[in-house]
Amino acid sequence: MSRLDTIAERLDSAAAKASAVAQLSTGADAITLDEAYEIQARSIARRLLRGEALVGIKMGFTSRAKMVQMGVADLIWGRLTDAMMLEDGGEASMEDYVHPRIEPEIAFRLSRPLSGNVSLPEAISAVDAVAPAMELIDSRYRDFKFSLEDVVADNCSSSGFVIGAWSKPPADIANLGMVMRFDGRPVEIGSSAGILGNPWRSLVAAARLAGRYGFQLAPGQIVLAGAATAAQPLKAGLHVALETEGLGRVDLKVK
Ligand code: OOG
Ligand code: MG
After folding, report:
1. CATH of the domain at 101
2. Are 232 and 101 in contact (CB under 8 A)?
3. Which of 57, 67, 99, 137 has the most ligand 1 atoms within 8 A of CB, as the residue to mutate?
4. I need a labelling partner for 112 at 20 to 30 A (CA). Which of 25, 50, 69, 219 fits?
5. Distance 51 CA to ligand 2 centre (A)
6. CA of 119 to the centre of ligand 2 (A)
7. Do residues 75 and 154 touch, judged by C-beta distance below 8 A?
8. Nearest CA owner, ligand 1 atom 10
């Protein structure tokens, strides 16, 4: 097996078994960013071979809050599969994750293909619906610590996501209030403006960055725009809810 395949297998198996591994960057496995995206592609290919289907991509570090929380300042993207999808109002089990966190996001659903350098109006016209969403991230690295290359290889900590009801894109989504609550208590309060000043910009970046690595966004696929605020650690028994102005709410229970 090649070096990149070996790392891809290690990260895929860490995700499948919910067991943490050492960072690549601090050990003998330092990689370049291009190699990191190749490892990500190969580790997700293993999931597809097991029968999972690709349903879209996620953007990461589109907000200052996240860059500051994680100490990484470049936009990243990862792949989403159907097995990561959690039901709105459904349950996530702590047993399936190493040290899960949750963060408030916005989801786009595409009705047209999108790839490469697209304008803001082109990106907007490729979307038929927008929804409130939460991403469940779970780094496979010990202590949730990583470099840019480490996190990209680990599919950008992507582990789960829950999407609320889809609606026709509102005329303006640049400054929607977002409140994430744990058992009714607000734990993160923000605005969609936290996402690159306007979440539509995240979609433009998604088309460009994924396109650079040969990934074409297809009709029916989903793009998670990235968290508007920092992420919060989950624990068993919590009821998590996100309310987004104009888009409604999305819920998840943790057991
Ligand atoms: C990396 C993923 C970042 C976001 O929304 O900014 C991300 C991480 O924080 O573990 O998903
Ligand atoms: Mg995220």
Report:
1. 3.90.850.10
2. yes
3. 137
4. 50
5. 24
6. 23
7. no
8. 157
The torsion region of residue 33 among left (phi > 0), alpha (psi -120 to 50) and beta comes to alpha
Q: Which domain holds residue 115?
A: 3-254
Tell me the β-bridge partners of 149. none
With tokens 């963060």, the residue in question is 103
β-bridge partners, 249: 243
Helices 3-17 and 33-49 pack at an angle, to 10 degrees, of 60
Residues 22-77 have pLDDT tens digits of 999 998 889 999 999 999 999 999 999 999 999 999 999 999 999 999 999 999 99
Consecutive H or E run containing 92: strand 91-92
Taking the CB of residue 1, how many other CB atoms lie within 10 A of it? 8
- State the total domains in the chain: 1
Q: What is the pLDDT of residues 112-171, one digit of tens each?
A: 999 999 999 999 999 999 999 999 999 999 999 999 999 999 999 999 999 999 999 999
Q: Which neighbouring-strand residues pair with 245?
A: none
Q: Tell me, what's the ipTM?
A: 0.99
Ligand 2 is an ion; residues with CB less than 5 A from it: 135, 227
CA distance 244 to 251: 12
